[in-house]
């Protein structure tokens, strides 16, 4: 019984990577090669960014830094006294 389970485990251990490799090889065997404009058009059709979204910064935070000395680790003004 233990020998059969071991053989089954070894077969599965060898078959799983082979199946994954075959799936990946089949998916990447014939890639579509397009120029940049065509790729951008396809990306927009699939839900990519609009032209108007490019002009705005994705980071909408302000340039202010509200942190003080009390917000930092290991800083204690009482140590200098």
UniProtKB/TrEMBL annotation:
It comes from the Archaea. Residues 34-81 are annotated as: Disordered. Pfam families: DUF8143 (PF26467). This is Uncharacterized protein. It comes from Natribaculum luteum. The lineage of its organism: Archaea, Methanobacteriati, Methanobacteriota, Stenosarchaea group, Halobacteria.
